[in-house]
Amino acid sequence: MHIHEYQAKTLFKKFNIQTPNGILIDTTVQASDACAKLEGDIWVVKAQVHAGGRGKGGGVILCRSVGEVEQACDKLLGTQLITPQTDVKGLPVNQVLVEAGQNIEQELYLGLLIDRQTQKITVLASTEGGIDIEKVASETPDKIIKFGVDPLGTLNSQDCDSIAQKLNLADTLAEQFSQTLLGLYEIFITKDVSLIEINPLITTAENTLLALDGKIDFDDNALYRHEDILALRDISQEDEKEMTASEYQLNYISLNGTIGCMVNGAGLAMATMDLIEHHGGSSANFLDVGGGTTAQRVAKAFELIQTEKNVSGVLVNIFGGIVRCDLIAEGILQAIEKVGLNLPIVVRLEGTNAAAGLKLLDESGVAIHTESDLTQAAIKIVELSK
Ligand code: GDP
Ligand code: MN
What we know:
Rossmann fold; single chain; 13 helices; binds manganese (II) ion; EC 6.2.1.5; Dna Ligase, domain 1; 4-stranded antiparallel beta sheet; Succinate--CoA ligase [ADP-forming] subunit beta; binds guanosine-5'-diphosphate; ATP_grasp_subdomain_1; 3 domains; D-amino Acid Aminotransferase, Chain A, domain 1; magnesium; alpha+beta; elongated
């Protein structure tokens, strides 16, 4: 689960990580009050969306007057923000964070994640923080300092000091750095985090170290024991279809292609998508309806696929192991009865009760192309969806 920057910063403060003063608002009329409370004469208006790259996407606006802050709020609130990390639709900006502007001396990077190769929680740090950290990581990886924490031990202040030294931080900045890193580690451990990141972590002209941005991803499987974190969920930032799908225990991911896929089993779904691609098509989604599926779930899955905007054809590929193909056929017919069928559809059934399932479809009078061979089915749907 992702959270917003302002929520990450609230958590930072609880764990002794310093951040700029900021006020969250959701209408422009609140802007002048916020500026007055924050004092100073420079403010930054920051769109709150679950994606990075906001700076590049115009979602972080530096303002030199209250009027400019109001303009920035007007420009962002109620719009969809598109950044290099969102899809073409972008994400809705329902709130902005107005922050006191800072005199930035240096932009550092500091993050913690689970490195599966070394099987350790790993600290990543760099003197080259800011909006191009991805470029730094890929082009000059030696500029990223890595430190693995012993899973049976803990992160101690000597470790922090040595990382601070490598970042050329001394005296009070090194002390603030230790405090920041220990706070991040504490959040990571106690909240079952999978990634936590401050980019940029800045040093200011006043010799302070501040978290100017904050990103935290939590392990979904551990959310049951963190009610406080679960309460931070913002469903306006999540894909609607993926949400409905999870309610019905369907594993659904929207993609950019034109052929809707309904498959049982993740491996078979991937193979099906590869085959569509191989024959010149592209998938509109990944969908695994799971093992012990029901007619009702199939109907829901079918509904979801049909509402995907770019879909021009549907391929159903079911291998009946635990699941019975005749039940799948019933689900498809139920769905068509409910939502109608305005797209070409190819159904390939194989395995338990396949013959009965295909017979049901063939005798239904609905315009469904049935196939028992997967390659033929893929070729057919690519052709029909053109
Ligand atoms: P991101 O692009 O989504 O990662 O958003 P960030 O919160 O990291 O902001 C992007 C960039 O905006 C930062 O790297 C800074 O260079 C700049 N920025 C953000 N806040 C301030 C500020 O208070 N003062 C100044 N001068 N620049 C800021
Ligand atoms: Mn950032």
